Structures are given as structure tokens and as C-alpha cells.
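Hey team,

Filing this mostly as a record. A colleague (T.K.) asked me to run one chain through the structure pipeline before their review meeting, and I want the input and output archived in the tracker in case anyone asks later how it was produced. No errors, nothing strange. Just documentation.

Input sequence:
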Amino acid sequence: MKTVRTWCIRILMILFTVIFLYPLFWNLMSAFKTNAEYLTDPYALPTALNLDNFVAAWQKANIAAYFGNSIFVTVFSTVLLLLLVIPISYVLARYRFVGSRLISTVYMACIFLQATYIMIPLFLELQAVNGLNNLPVLCLVYAVMQFPFCIFTFFNIILYFYVLAYSYIFLVYFMHTILVYHSSGFFPSLIFSIFLTNSSSAWSNR
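Output structure:
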């Protein structure tokens, strides 16, 4: 029964792989075709590896500039996103202050705000401040639109390592106490007091 289920899962995964990879293969195959071959039979294999399409795209379509713009926007947006998201996530995960829970809730709620909902208002705002056709402004928009999900991710990562660090400290302290006070009569009460002290300090510092 387990073997049948395993093979069913494998067949299903192979099917999904073919479904997702076929469009990529079809685009790559069509790139080597001439216009006549593509209009005759779009799904047939190319008769030869024709590189004229790539030359035309590089020279006539100015794809080199577009490629450079994509690299600039990707790198600059990522760097800007990390510079802003990591401190925000650390403060929200590590400290408690007035409004911290409200800020976290607003960021988490903004995850469900899709870009298509604010596309027209965002365009009008950028047009009002002359931010169109401006790569740094585009990088800023891309970075800010990824704030909610990235803050949610880093927030949980920081909390995980924070709890892990306190657990490790408590474990080391606990083992040290066992070795030192193993033969002592007040060992149980001492362990209980250490546990309460570390737990209360950990949660109060958050």
C-alpha cells in the first residue's frame, strides 16, 4: 500500500514538472526558429539553430539596456530592502514599546494587500512627484512593497534564534548547576529558582 502511494506521488510530481517545464522549453525552442517556421508549425522543432533572433533582440530591441536596468533594480532593491527590514524586524521582535503590537499587526495585515490593488493610486502619486522613468524611485517602490512579507519572515527568524539562544544558555547553566550541586541537599529548590529567574528575565527583556 505504501509503495503504491509512493509511486502515485512520484507520477504526480513528474506530471507537474512536465507541465511547468514545457512552456520554458517551448519558448526556448521558438527562439531558434525563423518567422516562416514559427508561422508554419509553432509546436514543431526548429530545423536548425538560428541565432538571428538573438542578434536582432540585442541590436534592434536594445535588450542590453533592459538587462542592465534589471540587474540594477534587483541589486539596489535587495540591498535597500535588507538595510531597512533587518533593523525594523529586530526592534519589533526584541523590544516591547507603546504601539509595537499595533505596528506588527499592520505589517502582517499588509501581506494580503496585493500590488494590483494599489497600482493606479501608486502610478498617480509617482506621476505627481515626477517619479516616473526613474530607476532609484522604482527600486524604492519594489523594496517598500516587499516590506510586510520580509518583516514577517525576519521577525520569526529573530524570535527563533532568540529563544534558541536563551534555551542554550539555560541548558548550560542547568548542566553546570547539576555538576556543582549534585550532592547538595537544596538542589531541587535551586534548580526551580534558576528556571524561574531565567524564564522571567527572558520574557521581560522582550
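Quick notes for T.K.: The chain is about 80% helix and 0% strand. The two ends are 49 Å apart (CA to CA).
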